[in-house]
Amino acid sequence: MSDVMKTVLLNPPSFENFDGGASSRWPATREIESYWYPVWLAYPAGLIPGSRLVDASPHKIDWKQTIEICKSYEFLVLYTSTVGFYSDIKLIRKIKEENPGLKIAFVGPHGHIKPEETLNASADIDFVVRGEFDHSVAEFAQGKPLEQIAGACFRKDGKIVMNTPRPQLHTAELDALPYATDTYKRDLQIERYNVPFLLHPFVSFYTTRGCPAMCTFCMWPQTISGHAWRTRSVDNVVQEVKNTLEYFPQMKEIFFDDDTFNIRRDRAIELSQKFKPLKFQWSCTARCHSKYEELKAMADGGARLFIVGFESGDAQILKNIKKGATIEMAREFMKNCKKVGIKVHGDFIIGLPGETKETINKTIDFAKELDCETIQVSLAHAMPGTELHDQMSKDGFLRVEALADTGGHQLPHIEYPHLSKADMMDGVNRFYDDYYFRPKVAWRIVREALWDSHERKRLYHEATSFLKLRAERLKWVRQGGDIDKTIVSVPGSASASVND
Hints:
This protein is an alpha/beta fold. It is built from 18 helices and 17 strands. The longest helix is centred in the C-terminal third of the chain and has 26 residues, at 453-478.
């Protein structure tokens, strides 16, 4: 224990209410205040004795408090995002002023994609880890020299050294990792985590890593987790479920936050059969390829809701982004989900390659036809490291530098000759209005909260937050997409932080 560096693993307060860190696939401040668990940081936190995981935003830990916490540590592991990167650089400068001897590692997709640029951005960063970083940071904390740590990128003699990549973890190695929920129990308050379409409080963790789907916009499979689909054993997952039910009796559901939970039919059915006697509710990510038999087994095993990326109602756009799913598959999937009683939260994206004003309207109509329980509509973001980013850059469509506004909310940074950034933001606004301001949908949402005071308060808070942001977005569109402080830029351009 005395030979291990005193380590803090930080999901930083890049912006107020920012959900940009160690489990967020789309780093942003949400329309409604939402936070995912920092799952990626939980595993190395469990590997390093005496460590602490600090998830700043949901626990309302600001810059001043973060700096104070870091004073007493020897090693800081910070999970950065492209949107929050420049804010994080400023934060570590303040931390180092108070604790000059602190060693700092940056982890996450941004450093994986641009390790040299990340190191060159700040002399305060001692090293960056590319790929999965569980063991890399644990080895450094235990005294292993950087030269011997696979995946590490660091400075030596005025040059940047990139060590050989670390092999991905497979079933035996994934099973050997500490349970993420052990770290949650030690360091986090589960009531702090809210996602509007999940029951509150919930707990989430992974049963797999990687995703074989080739969606051009999706960041994680093209960066740290890869396309190889690697599974934990069924028994290992079931044991963590049992522990979670014991640790958190106040929990209302478990969310399996895999890139895609239902890739393999036999595994989804086997897990569901072993979940059934445990009598708990759960939700997960899913693709729309599952057939009735598999969906029925999942429903019988306690499945309550799926998050499904339908993305678009235009067949050509689905081909353009290599979705590997069709309009008809989505229709059949939704029909069967309704038959077995599993709710669906549908994700849609405005501004993908091939988007026009007509396809936006087509997708809105398609979403209404599917009639998911709830929806989320995102602007297409071509994150560095993705095929979409390379394509948009090559075609000259990355014309808007800002990724987000001063609060970390998404702004369009793709613009087409035939479709302006204001057109796309207007599409997002109309999508939400046309979908949710239908009597049957409004009643469906209100009905859930009628007999539960906790849910009524939650619904009121979420509705007021959404309507406030809706008004701001409508103003942004009326101004033609012009706003004074679109300051969170694509890496390489100047940026400032609201935390200055």
